Amino acid sequence: MEEWMFRLTDISMYEYQLEAIDKLQSGMILWGNVGSGKSRTSLYFYCKNYSNKKLLIITTAQKRNNGEWLEECKVFGLKPIIDSWNNIRKYEKYENYFIIFDEDHLTGYGAWSKTFIKMAKCNDWLVLTGTPGDNYSEFMTVFIAKGWYKNKRDFEENHVIYSRYSKYPKVDRYINQGLLEKHRRDILVKMFVEKRPRVHKEIVITQYDISKYKKAYKDKRDENNKPFKNATAFCLYLRKICNEDESKIVKVRELLLKHNKVIIFYNYLYEKEILLKLLKTMRTFNVGEYNGQHHDDIPIGERWAYLCQYTAASEGWNCLLCDTMIFFSMNYSYKAMEQAAGRINRVNTPYKDLYYYYLRTTSSIDLSINRALSTKKNFNESTFIGG
Fold this sequence. Notes:
387 residues; alpha/beta; Rossmann fold; 17 helices
């Protein structure tokens, strides 16, 4: 332990990170906003308190593959096992390890959650998250792992009243909330950066073909008069009407001329093609891509645009070279949107101001997506159609 203490004194940590470490214990959740340094903080905690145990890190496949955790571990001279949530069952019989569960995937009561509970009983551990649960049910798995409840049924019998009138299981209210709140406080350690850049968020309204949109919405058919196969196809078509409008291209061009270095997030392949076509007309811009097919380095030069697809690029990399991000279209996932925004909002960013532009129309689907995200929820296609 003395060797670790000596080496830890050489590692640079912020005061708010050290304060969080003093509050942490095994079996807790470290909650820090994106870019606050949760990975380094958890490794410091491990080295300070549990260096006599082997280290296992369970993270997303992307963060495992891109070496982000490996780089952090090198700072501490660590060589842990690093694997993804998809492979968590490989480790369910491991004992006497210290385990870091990165990017909390423990909502619900599925296979990952049940495996986590088994592992928690035989090991020391931390959970890292940037988006903690919005309700007590989302903490249930950790509450069970702590031994406060035997299983899901025990938790629900003590605390959950389901709605009698819903077509699917829907929580109406929680009972004995005082105990639930105490449990939540006992496991959650907040870690927020004291000095962050000023964040400027702007909603940029663009136009869309209202008559085409209304016809598709009413008839539930595409331009070839073919009915939509499902809710996904229906929503995709409505979004395409909104995203292909020329006014959106004009707005992106204006923003590119205003900011010389820009990251642009998009959802669909046709959106990327629209953006590439635009950038070809702006020859002074260098262009890079981060998606399922390409993983270019961040462009260099005085003027550049980095086109990033949400699924591939919303986590696992950082950029300290620009202060501007454009969301060409919104993602259905609140977490994906937060993670994407965090690519430039890092604790060590050199910028005092960061600029985020959210492009959307006043169409019913864009308004519904925006409404869900603004309440920290995911957009549900079936609910939209039903509504």
